[in-house]
Specification:
The protein is mainly β. It contains one helix and 55 strands. The chain has a 17-stranded parallel sheet that branches. Strands 15-18-21-25-29-33-37-42 form an eight-stranded parallel sheet. It is flat and about 115 Å long.
Length: 640
Amino acid sequence: MMSMAVFLLAAVAAASEPVVHSRLTTPPRDFRPEALTADVRTLEDGKVYYLTNNLTFEGTAPGESGLAVASNATVYICIPMGKELTCRGADGRPATPGGAGSAPANTNTVVQTGGGYAFDYPTFNAPAGEATYAWDLDGDGVYETTDRGASFGYAFETPGWHKVGLKVTIGGETAEQPAANLVYVAPTKIYLAKSGKGVFPYDTEENAAKTLAAAQTAALEGSEIDVRGLFTTGFGSIVLNDVTLTGHGWATSEIIVSVATYYGGVTVRDLSIKSPGGNNTKGFNIVRDSVTLSNCWIHGYQHTGRTTPGGIATAGTFVGCRFTDSRNNGGSGIYSFGGTAKVRNSVFTGNYFNANSQDHYGIVYLSGNVQFENNVVYGNYAVAVTAGKASKSAGIYVSSGAPTVRNCVVCGNKKDGTLETGTEANWCFAAGLTPTVEYCNTPDLPDAGPTIQTAIPKFVDPDNTTVANRDFRLQADSPCIDAGLYQVWQKTAVDAAGAARFQGYKPDIGAYEFAKDTPALGIAADKARYYGAQDVTLTASSTNETAMAPGTTYLWTVDGVEQDETSGTLVKYLETGTYQVTATSRQCDYFTAAFELVVHEIPGVDFDSEETAGVGTKTVTFTPRGTGGLTIDDAATYAW
């Protein structure tokens, strides 16, 4: 994939002042550059830092620097020309060599690597005179660009590191910064495949990275990592930030990881995320709103003797995901959602809980202001295996806050036994809580309101012994069809199978929308043809009577002018002309029809003639024509 970055290259030289040229020794090619900011106090071994702004670090004691280097570390710092990194002790003096931090290279710029120096600093006093600048933009050691001056923009199109060198000549004296890795262009798409050659920056399938860790080193904000195959992260943790991780379906794209932490700007989609086995593993740990997991299968995670769940999200959005085959042998919950997290069109099934170290309160653990909508929680179970410990619920536990559970099926979850022998227990609320639970299918909700169904939801195959094959699509006679509450996000969303989330006149309850024709709205006029200004009556109609549900209001527009009506009929006085009319049923703000209406002139007859003035005898031809839509054909008779 091709990428391009435009960088401003600048050289700075001032008469009678020292000029510092920084030269970065070439870092390992699979390192990702990291911005050096005022928040960084210790430089870590093997990292590449890039100075984007002038920075000053001050130590806490005379002669010490506020910028420390880890023991026995080798670090790389790129200081573009015109930028300064200043390190000094608390007394304002430069840091001393060997001090607890950086050693001075001159009076105002300090860099030490801890394991050796990464820079040298040739300096000179610039004599008076006009400077000339020669640039090496391809790293070949030849300064081929001499007509760009001290500052100019240059487009680097090829992904990877680009070396840039500079030679400045003033009054016959020359100083140069040899070409070094300065500019990095991340690929638009980074490939991850075991069959790849592992050639940085992994911008083709042939040169794909062999590990996720390697692929991440080539990524910058906005990069996409294309996952092709099954990958193990070394049974450790992965941290994703500002990238998109894209698979090709659960069967062909899988990440095996103990703990996956997602920070801001991350999208993970079409992937299987699996535990490597063993205890105390988490499928996800999400702390930022700008994280989305879409169509991911999270499975096989386990906690033993821990109070924390196997997955925690205090932010982010889960869409069309499946959570299965995970367990917690103590603690509260397997999947915890709180804060501002959103969980939609997802399925929780085949998860298991042992209440052996403390009471258990639910497979799904909700708190904060989480929005839990159009999900299925079915076929999970919990067992109290230690005397005095209890399983309160095998379904949903609301621990605190004000979460919303809407358009969900929560049933078939059993405690104190197997799925066949246990007691159905789908809900548990912390004392004093009354969360919003509405438009759900569930048999045992405390204080259920009028929008709660208790009938069997009638899934296609919810009890398949192979959990991965359980089918939670709705049968044709399911009570969940067209029984949900419309939400704005559903208008353009898809369900857990990728089908339109909104079909029919209301959304369905559950993670899957039953396939049906969306009622089409039409507009009918009270006359086939209108002649002359008059009242026009238009009526909205549908082939499906449910689209015209009682109480529906309508928004009409006539040539852009809006008019609200409490019924599907519009009566409006119109002059002659052509009008563009639309009608929108406010039933879910979904059904819209368009219509072109013409009000003709009143029919009449007229005629055209040639020039009628002349000398002597004048022959004139008269041609009759109709007006107001009247057509004169060959069968017409004429009287003049």
